[in-house]
Design brief:
Elements: H1 2-19, H2 50-59, E1 65-72, E2 76-83, H3 91-105, E3 110-114, H4 117-131, H5 137-152
């Protein structure tokens, strides 16, 4: 009986040893894409987008930010922030921290920040319109007003 016990013990140890991951990587750790792509908007023919670009630079340094979209007009700065899944538990704290930082830096603009995906999508369309020079200043103001209204809706 002890011979069978020894064989089973050896087989179990070999199985455990063979199944161990000998590299320093963890098998269950998610793959991170820390390269946050920021779209820099030009200011030709439309409101100067330097405040939007500066806001993107400031917020890209925050941990947990996966996507950023920002557009401004004369009076408003609207920002959409994508937050990594594991950071969504503290979404309100992250949003409030970002809002405070942006309000201090952009005291002359009304800052609207949202982590809502529909706002990110609308800002992406708006950024593409600005890049392709498809919008007038009036159209930009109108679309930003619409996006601000969307951000205030509760879903």
């Amino acid at each position: 009986m002890s011979f069978i016990y020894r064989i089973l013990l050896i087989v179990a140890l070999l199985t455990i040893t063979a199944c161990m991951n000998n590299t320093n990587e963890f098998a269950f750790e998610p793959v991170r894409n820390d390269d946050l792509e920021l779209t820099k908007l030009s200011s030709y023919g439309i409101y100067d987008q330097n405040p939007a670009n500066k806001a993107k630079d400031m917020l890209s340094k925050h941990d947990g930010v996966s996507r950023l979209r920002a557009v401004n007009d004369r009076n408003d700065l609207v920002i959409g922030v994508g937050v990594r899944q594991h950071k969504r538990f503290s979404l309100k704290e992250i949003e409030n921290e970002m809002r405070k930082e942006l309000n201090e830096y952009f005291s002359d603009l009304e800052v609207t920040i949202s982590t809502d995906k529909k706002i990110l999508l609308e800002l992406k369309k708006l950024e593409e319109g600005i890049e392709n020079d498809e919008l007038t200043n009036e159209q930009l103001e109108e679309k930003l007003t619409k996006i601000k209204r969307l951000s205030k809706e509760e879903t």
